[in-house]
Amino acid sequence: MTSKKPQQFTLDILLSPPPTLDNFVLSKKDRKTGANIIAILKSLELYWENQSNPNLELEILYFWGPQGCGKTHLLKALNSIAQENELSTCFLESGSTLWSYLDYGNMLVHKLYLVDNVDHLKENEQKAFFRLLIEAKENEEILIISTGSQSISGLALRSDIASRLSSGLNFELHTLQDDEKIKAIQDFALAKGINFSEDIAPWLLDNFHRDMPSLISLVEALDQYSLQTKRSITLPLVRELLKNKT
After folding, report:
1. If one looks up domain 28-172 in CATH, what number appears?
2. How large is the average pLDDT for residues 206-228?
3. Predicted structure pTM score
């Protein structure tokens, strides 16, 4: 088997890896409540994989926080997990053509509804969303997981929707600070036995995609490239790997 050329490595790492529960990184502020979120979502994953009882009385889950905190990451990760386990799932956001389909009463088609940025929903979309929330309360086989930028009390949504969301579990997420991202990169490298100097992680943060999955993917590619070229991971090696990215 021929080794990858630097250009081939670059093409691979330019594509952000798919969101998963494992490549989601919690901020320091979320270590306590965030661990609960991940534990719940992992239980769902186990349930979907093995049809084992997750021991969760869960119909509605809502998590919120500013842009970049990982809300959409978690929804997309769950959507992929559900699809892999052949669970009927529906990913919704404002502007999706699926809202009009749901508005005609087609709500029992899917078991899992993932609604991103509920505070962006238009009036007709809010109407369909409210009906989904009612269905989830009346049908234990339906689960709705949604996100927003504000706590429920701060959402610019219909009061009946806010009330329904409040009846489920609610969690807040925070964005990672730069020092947390740097430490996460270094911790990942340490856990994998990847050695590089302390200036690597800050440089990656300033010169590459800033989302954690992409940064972790780059560290893995650097490790492979280092082994291939039999050179230590230094800034010159990083620049060499990335020089053809545009």
Report:
1. 3.40.50.300
2. 86
3. 0.79
